[in-house]
Amino acid sequence: MGTTVALNRAFDLNLGGIVLLKNSFLFFILAAFLPIVFIAFAASKSAASRRLPVYDAVLASTAFTVCFALGLNGENIITQGWDFNAPTWGTIAAIALWGLVLEALRRTAGMVVTVIALAFSLYPMVASAMPWQVLRGPSFSLERTAQIHAMGSDSILGLPLQVTGTILIGFLIFGVILQHSGGSQFFYDLAQAAFGRYRGGSAKVSIFSSGLMGMVSGSAVSNVLTTGPMTIPAMKRSGFTSRYAAAVEASASTGGTITPPLMGSAAFLMVSFIGVPYSDIALAAAIPAFLFFLGIFVQIDAYSAKQGFVGGSRSGASVLGRTLVGGWPYVTALVGLVALLVLTQDETQSPFWVVAFLLVFVVGRHLTARRSGGDLLKILFEFMLDAGKTIAQIVGIIAGVGLIVGGLSMTGVSLSLARELVSSVGGSVILILLAGAITSFVLGMGMTVSAVYVLLAIVMAPALVKLGVDPIAAHLFVIYWATVSYITPPVAVAAFAASGIAKSPAMSTAFIAMRLGAVKYLVPFAFVYNPALVAQAGLGEIAYTVLFAAAGVFFLGCAFEGWAIGGGCRLTPIPRALVGLAGLAAFIPEPISSVSGIMFGAAIIAFLRTRSQKHKDDHVPTKSRADRMTPAQTL
Questions:
Q1: Is the dihedral of CA 560, 561, 562, 568 positive or negative?
Q2: For 434-448, what is each residue's pLDDT tens digit?
Q3: Which of 228, 235, 307, 333 has the fewest CB atoms within 10 Å, i.e. is most exposed?
């Protein structure tokens, strides 16, 4: 039902000759997916292994009935102003929906974000009694608050759910079918063919495969659990320690959440908050994502050189070609999606066309293999179950997050928060950035990225925009810092998930993952001060800015790992610090500093290479390079 409603809206089919109003459309989306939350996500861990409890069946039935009934009355809600003066049954339905959404949020996102959403949703009832002027506003009764939350246009039915219903559902279905049709294995095989033959190739495979999976799933933890069982054992067999292997997978999987074309659900919410096409946001996010993965790649290469790892067979080019040819449907799907987004500028229809293509491929492949019809039905059934559960989880989270927006907009406080924030820091961009980074990180420990983004998109991002920061850069800053909690202790859920697969100490794994993903902590500050890093400048400026930033990432990667790539030697403390400073100088968004940093870093590497080569000439190597790299002496 939910997919049909979304398709009807995306393609303006007007099935049955009925044109749905926006609120009716959103209520029917809730009616389709909110009940699934109570069926697929248990109320507690102890109830997860039992058959569907009666109370879950009651909650699911109630959710469907309430949302469907409100959807049928969409026109009455608008014309008769039910969000301020609903009939008795409408008020009861509003209170019920409020409670159902909070419970759905608890099951899909956890208790922390639910408590925050509850507090914000109750806030309008006590706004006039708040001791701080900035939070003071008109108060509402319980009934009126429930009516506005459930039937107004700025709370449960607000921008987050509107984006989910019109844009995000198609992309979620695309991600699910790509995995169910064999995309996960193809991405891993492609990465193995491309990088498996190089020094530290198994870890580079993890970067590439996890990045590709992140492009379509947008979830760090699911990336770890999908690609980790393949990449982590391969890294361990190649000589990487358990901790390092798990950290590589965790960092790379986290990078997937900020990698186009899909990224995470928060990126789609930017479409409505900023008012630009999703293709513009995906293009803006491409350069920072490239820098993030480059940082991990450089550190892995440096680590591999330091450990004396060598590559495998050089016959990988033909394997890569065969892999690409064999995986043509997945390459076509990704390229086709990007092309549709760029050419049509239509985020609502594009993913559905690609989903249709993959469905035809799956059915055609099955018929060509002459398998039984039962197998095909099983595959399609599992795909629909997974897609329904994935969409339901996002809908449960997004509807609950809408209560945060509703609580602030209902009282008018959201309009003054940005102004007060700018005033309190004296118009200092760096102070707002530091406060926002800390807030995003702390909230990211217990809230989803979408929830953190929505909250700070109301409070912090507008304040940055008022101070002249590019809107896309301001909103991406929030998303980047909301995702660092995936690899940063004490939470570090992606690192902990990877450590479970690698059987490594969780906390030390997280600290290594932090170092590998260090670029994610730096690049948001860089693109705020230099919008060229989010493609908000002329082509020439973008080109040299990316070149400078990439050089900075290279030097920083060498310094973090303690090995001079190109110099062929370890970095002792003083050269290591100097190379790190050169990287920071190159990364600073100012041409003179960047050029100076690059020249200084290159000079250090060249000097170390000369010293290293002279030292090697004075010693006879004890091992053939075909067996192992000659250990470089520490300078």
A1: negative
A2: 888 888 777 776 666
A3: 307
